Each structure stands twice: as structure tokens, then as C-alpha cells.
Amino acid sequence: MKYFFWLVLFCTASLTCSAQDNWLGTFADEVKTAAHLKAIPGYAFAVVSAEEPDQVFVQGKTRKNGKQPVNQDTVFRLASVSKTFTSVLAAKLVEQGKLNWNLPLSQLAPDYPFKPELAKSMTLGHILSQSSGYMPNAYDNLIEADYPVKRVLNELAGLKPICSPGSCYTYQNALFAVVEEGLHNSLQLNYAQLLQENLLMPLGMSRSGVGRQALMRDENWARPHVLLAKNRWHEVAVNEDYYRFAPAAGVNASIRDMRQWLKLMLGQYPHLLSSHAIEQLLTPKIRTSRELYRRHWRDHLKDAHYGLGWRVYDFDGELLVHHSGWVKGYRADVGFSPKYKTGMVFLMNAESNLMNEITVNFWADFFEQMKIRAQTAP
């Protein structure tokens, strides 16, 4: 799918009808067409800008054979986009003096037999920057086999690292359970409580929450779908597995709420998250060179790093902050441009690779439009 800048396809109330300004309407229509061709059950996406009214697009149903349409309040799983919530929560607690980026593993999870030298040298910052040193996706297989959290962490504690903390990129899910342990040990509150009190409630993200039960007790939630054959989707059950590792993949949200999340990261709520905290989160910590070879992305990425809970890309010479999520039956994607104060979030109740194509083409088109505007500005 390729998005061309056609003159005028349609206009929304808040978009001007010109070849330059109507590109978002064209993009939305192209997404609708592609999703229809692939029979995607449902999706929602939003574009947030400091200069323009929010744009929200929803399509499809909450379940393939159901009648309830997806709307702005439909709740989706965020999967690994949850890591952005965990890092932002940590940044807020650090500013409050309740947490420290250099808090060692020995204090985060003192009840587990991590190797003494590693327990001293690995910190909260290493975990959130995906530079722990453990082999990538260590023991995800145990998560998916429904092993209890404590057993997975005990297994992880005996694992020999492939590099020292902070020296190589090693993406993790299981290790994020250590963050929840540390928060509970330090503050005597669980992850869900801390997230609600410090971020979700102050931001008015009333449709967001943590955990499988929080998703399924809602009257308006998107069911997960997996592909059986070409364009044939099958509804599946929601598994508890990754929900038990909530800081890694346990958050749910609606597209309306995710607009608030983007506004927070774009600096529109400095009383909740300071510019200094945002700067800390977006500072590159470890290079992620494998990202440069991903399909669709490889034509645009010039460099790639991981910050604290966020990916930091050089996308066609522009800074793009991004994270994606993928868990059984769902895809999620969020990204923003600090320079242009614009962000995009996309939620889908199907495991479709169309997500990568949509995201890359959105940002390629967006940055191209910014160049055109700069060239034509008086």
C-alpha cells in the first residue's frame, strides 16, 4: 500500500481542502481501503497535534461476527506499548524522589537469587532501556506457558548474561516483572494502583486500566483475532500470560485515552510530566541496529536506539519516538515527533502486519508534508 498526495479525496471539518493540507484525509481513506481488503475486524487511530484539532478515525466491529461498532471508547490491549507507561511512571516517581534510575537489581528484587555481581551492577535504568545483558526475550516461552511470575524470575536469576549491563541491546519482557516487585517493595503499592494514581486518573484516562479482568469486564472492548488463512480472521480467548507481567504488557486503553497519552509526551501537561523527565526518557541509551533492517522501516531508518521505555529513531533525518505492541489477537502502535509536536496512535484487534505498513507510510507522508510546508512558507 502506498499513499499518494492526491488533490482532494474528502475533507473533514477541521482539515482544509488543499493538496497540501488534505493528506491526512487521503491517508485515512487509504487505511480504510487496505483494512477492508484484508478484512480487519476493527481498528481506531488518532493524530494529535499541538497546532491542529485532534483527528480520530474508527472502523469495523469489536468482534468479527458481532454488531457492536468500534468507537472512540472501545478498549484495546496495548501489549508492549505498556512499556512506555512503565517508563513514564518511573520517571515521575524519580522526580518525586521515590525512585532512582540507579536502583540496583539487589534492591528491586531482593528475594530472588540473582548472581551477586549482576545484582549490584544491573539497575532500573538498564531494565527500562532494554540493556540488561540477558539474551533477548529471555523466557518469553515460560510466560506463554503460564509459568508463575516468581518461577520465571527464579529461572531468570540463574541465567548467564550475554553482555554486561548497559553494553548491548537485549529486549526483555519477563525482566519487567522486577519493576513491579521493586515498586511494591519501595512504595507498598502495586503497579496498577501507582499507574492509576499518578497518570491515568490525572490525565482523565478513565477507559484505561491494567489486567485481563479490567479489559473483559468492560462493556465496550475489542475481542482479539488471529489469522486462519488469507483474510480469514478467527476470534480467540484473551490469555492471562503477558498480563501477569503488567509493566511489560499489561495496560489496556481506548483511542480517546491514548490521545491524552500522546499529549502528555508532547509536553502539554508539564504539571504531570516535566520537560526534564521527557528529555530523560527520550535520551538514547543503547543502539538497536537490528531495527534498521526491518521490512518497511529499513527504507527510512538511518539510525535506531532505545531510550527509557521508548524507541528513538532517525527517520529520514527526523527524530521519531516510537513503540509498538503485539500480543495474541492485537496490534498497537504509538509514535510522535517532538519537533513538530505531532503524534499518531493506532490500535487494532487483529494480528496483522498491515500495522507496520500503516505506521511507516504515515510518518513518511507526514515528514514529507512538513518539508513541503517549509519550502512553501513565506
UniProtKB/TrEMBL annotation:
Keywords in alphabetical order: Signal
A Pfam family assignment: Beta-lactamase
Signal sequence range: 1-19
Name of the protein in question: Beta-lactamase-related domain-containing protein
Gene3D superfamilies (UniProt xref): DD-peptidase/beta-lactamase superfamily
Family: Belongs to the beta-lactamase family.
Stretches assigned to the Beta-lactamase-related domain: 35-353
Species annotation: Bowmanella denitrificans
UniProt keyword annotation of Signal present: yes
InterPro entries reported in the protein's UniProt record: Beta-lactam-related (IPR001466), Beta-lactam/transpept-like (IPR012338), Beta-lactamase-like_AB/R (IPR051478)
